[in-house]
Amino acid sequence: MSKTKTGMSRLLEIAGEKRGLLILSGVLSSVSAVLMLVPFLSVYFILAELLRHASSPGQVDSDAMIRWGWIALGGLIGGLVTSYCGIMCSHIAAFRIQYNLRVRMTEHLGRLPLGFLNGTSTGAVKKTLEQNVDKVENFVAHQLPDLVSALASTVLMIVAMFWLSPPLAVACLLPILIGMVVQSALMMSGKGKTSVKQYHDSLEQINASAVQYVRGMPAVKVFGQTVHSFRKFYSDMTRYRDYCLEFTDRYQSGYVLFKTLLASSFTFILPVGVYMLSGQPDSMSFALVLLFFLIMAPGVSSPLYKLLMLASSTRDIGEGVERMDRLLAQQPVPEIIMPLSPHAFDVEFTDVTFSYSEEEGATAALSEVSFRAEQGKVTALVGPSGSGKSTVASLVPRFWDPQEGAIRIGGVDIRYMAIHELMNTVAFVFQETFLFYDTLYENIAVGKPEATLDEVQAAARAAQCDEFISRLPQGYDTLIGEGGVYLSGGEEQRIAVARAILKNAPVLVLDEATAFADPENEHHMQLALTELMRGKTVIVIAHRLSSIREAAQILVLRDGQIVERGDHDSLIDLDGLYTKMWHVYSGTGDWHMEKGGEQL
Amino acid sequence: MKVLHNITAGKPQQLLKPVLFSFLANIVSVLPFALVIEAVRLIFAPYITVGAELQIERLWWICAGLVAVMVLMFLSEIPAYRTAYRGAYNVAAQGRAELAEHLRKLPLGYLTRRDPGDLANMMMGDFTLVETGISHLLPQLAGAFVLPIFALAGLLFLDWRMAISMFVALPVALLIMYLSGRLRRRLGADHMKAKLNAANRLQEYLNGIRVMKAYNLTGERFVRLDSSFRTLMKESVKLEGIFGPVILTAMALLRAGLTLMVYVGVHLLLGGELGILQLAVFLIVGTRIYDPLTTALANYAEFRYNEQAGERIVDLLRQPVMTGTTAPLPESSTIRFDNVTFGYGGEPVLKQLSIEMPQGSLTAIVGPSGSGKSTVLRLISRFYDPDEGSVLLGGRNIKDIDPEHLLGSVSVVFQDVYLFQDTIGNNIAFGRPGASQQDIQQAAEMARCHDFIMKLPLGYNTPVGEGGSTLSGGEKQRISIARAILKNAPIVLLDEATASLDPQNEAEIQKGIDALITGRTVIVIAHRLKTIRGADNIIVLEDGRLVEQGRHEALLLRGGLYDRLWKLQQQSVGFRITS
């Protein structure tokens, strides 16, 4: 990936888009800009013809004048048509770029480590994929042709004006230049810069607090916070408004002066013209030149102004491209050239050290963790929250790769297995489930795309889904999600188990704390898990110590290290952390709410 | 009128001043053209009338006039600028406060049905569009008609035939623009559908990427995403391709007036009915007259877009709010459901439910998922009002009590806790605004969160992230219990507050809950039946109806649904993970 390219050319590179369409669009837009000047020119020629025969109107070449009228119309229509063609070209290019960018980035996402897309990064990635890409689309589709045509007409006009009369040309451009200097002086001054920054800061703040206000609404309501006492949102909003007003005041004279100057080209041209005219009162040719300027002048400022405005929007593109590049710079999981296949299914961690952050000195989530999960047996992970249980579980399916040490399945380092092979070897059922917007059948068949209906139904039965599925209006063909049915959390989880059963991978990583919404669900879920675990190498994050009493191996984690290991009985004998946890656990089992103290 | 109402988010009167001043400023900006036309007349007078001198002095006067007009323009632009921008920001700020206030008064049910991102965007993005509409688009649109109208009036005096040929196409162009709006809506529907579909597919892809990878489906599922992107691309091109020519036709028609004018003008000139100077004036005016209109046409789409933003706001403001008095609440905090039927729009979730939760008692609600347990709590907190029947607090229908006033007496601990982007101390203080540091710490100690808070780098002043993401689930849960303890409300609602936590956390939370419920009217939903076996009354719901109620032992003896659930759960405790 070449880092030297930025902005537009990098954009085209990412999108894999050829310049052809954009160049065509630029050419057409320039042609259109030139053609759009034809009506003005026609009027000028008509006026010239009129004035030449001013004293004797009867001699006017009426055919020529009407011809100029048609030429004006022709130029106009030609200009509009070429502009349309140019815009269509740029739009097609833009939509193609948009499409390619999305495809390229989503494809890239698919190759990133599984851990990359978690709660926080999903939002940012979605923003990049939608807003930044949309901005790029908007720029390429609309602003680019505008920019080119503004440039073309400005250049043409300036050349023509200087060719006709340099002093008048200067007079015409002078107010625009003064206006620009005034405005940029304001913007660039120290005060101006800081206030721009403050403005953006307060904008960001009010955005954040608006999101918070809405998301926290239930809490806001429960705690009776009125909008005014909801201090943060209100004060952020007031601050934002005050910045805006301050901004408005600050730029008032600059902006108004700029606007006035842009509209005052006559005020500059006419005195110069009159001065020159007084030196040659009889020169009709100069009078015509002056006339030309008076007709054309008001048309110079607006494309020039547009040009300036648009020039700044190219910065946005640079920023958008940078964001996309940051995403594309995320290292995908490398493809193995000569992948190895395991023939046994025990899982072994050797001196695994892992940290979620790549930075030096970041606290390790796991340090030097070594253990062996026997094939066909249960290995349970227990420990306080934050001890690293989930991290151990997520390293097996390669959500992340450890910085040090190795993880092997049947003696094969999982980094040397082809990704699809690893995925076929390891099944995982975590707390978060995900169902596709599709039929129930399709959602279960995900586990084994070539599965027959019988196989799918057998898996569903084993996962205790059969009963609720048969109660649905269209059974297995019921659509999940919008326009279909919504399943309860427990039902969704059993679908996920059914998938895993169908997949029948030899290694199973699971989180026991499935949302046990109610006693019935819990019971079903346990039956489903029992079915799923049969004969597999199981690594389980356990929450109820009672359920792992018969596990072959229990690993007790604390602060990213294995502090105790063994089966239930030997750990109880050890009288360490596990024993303490076991007592707490047995204690909570007895707890129940009861009314004590005095009544209100 | 409706348009004006919408684009100002319901405050059209705010437009009066900006539009008026913009009008004035635009009138002033017509003056240079008038002066220049006079200058052209003077410059060419010698060529038209034989023997006439070039009146240089008068030309200098015109130059002076132009300078004066420039000053006048500057002065007239200032109030236009000030009223437009200041007005816009003030309208938006007031509007945002109003909307925030309105959101708060809406039934929570309405809010939960909507995407919070959408609402937040309305508060910010849509109001920004309204700002632009007021500060920019509308004055511009209004101003765009000043020059043409003045010119038309002036030119009609000069020669009505020429004036009419200049503007004859204007109504047609406006009509085309109006009709194109409808066309756009029609075409836009398909485009919008494609856009939504692509967004949903993208969302699905991002959220489901783990599952896809786990099942080696990245390729297959990708095809669906890809095809939705492709459809969107095609629809976009189609929309642009069809709609573009319509606008261009309108522009072409508008500007074709110039050619028509040349045609008419030449004939009138040759017929001796029009002077050369008059024709020149028409032509000069004709080159520039259409500019503001063209700009207005080009901005029309943006204008409509901004108007829609305002419309969304106006629509939301129109949603009926919950009302009620803030009169002192009844002494008794006994809660009674009297024949309550309620549904979230579709099938009723609660069906003619009549239950009572006496003051100072602990009532548990149990039942299979979907039986309506959480709905009971939501109705007590007046997040919704029942469709039929009534919920009574101390004998008074809570429909007559202002929702916030009612909630002042209710503490709720939800299963998922929302923490504000603020310090931990302030998050607890939400329970009782104005609480002292001591009160906060005491509540935190009772809720068993003091210790972990003190371990944080800044203690109670440690900020927590949006949604409280930097704390674990159990810690967040305990903070919400501390909030509730601090609030010290007579009614406490607990919704599965101990679901899916690890044993340590659970033990801590249990201690917090013990501190919270002492001496209050407590209504609890718990999935572990063991934890509620000491309740004064257990209400068993199934499918929105009351199937049985009573104390733990009595219910077991009945051998009904409760007994069955209890036995299932006893079995679950014996569950062993084995392979």
UniProtKB/TrEMBL annotation, chain B:
Cytoplasm in keyword set: no
Top-level taxon of origin: Bacteria
UniProt-listed InterPro entries: AAA+_ATPase, ABC1_TM_dom, ABC1_TM_sf, ABC_transporter-like_ATP-bd, ABC_transporter-like_CS, P-loop_NTPase, Type_1_exporter
UniProt KW keywords: ATP-binding, Membrane, Nucleotide-binding, Transmembrane, Transmembrane helix, Transport
Gene3D superfamilies reported for this sequence: ABC transporter type 1, transmembrane domain (1.20.1560.10), P-loop containing nucleotide triphosphate hydrolases (3.40.50.300)
GO MF terms, alphabetically ordered: ABC-type transporter activity; ATP binding; ATP hydrolysis activity; ATPase-coupled lipid transmembrane transporter activity
One Pfam family recorded for the sequence: ABC_membrane
PROSITE patterns: ABC_TM1F (PS50929), ABC_TRANSPORTER_1 (PS00211), ABC_TRANSPORTER_2 (PS50893)
GO cellular component, as recorded: plasma membrane
Organism the protein comes from: Paenibacillus etheri
Domain ABC transmembrane type-1 intervals: 19-303
Domain ABC transporter residue range list: 335-568
Residue intervals passing through the bilayer: 20-47, 59-76, 137-158, 164-183, 237-254, 260-285
Subcellular location: Cell membrane
Entry membrane topology: Multi-pass membrane protein
Record-given protein name: ABC transporter ATP-binding protein
SUPFAM superfamilies per record: ABC transporter transmembrane region, P-loop containing nucleoside triphosphate hydrolases
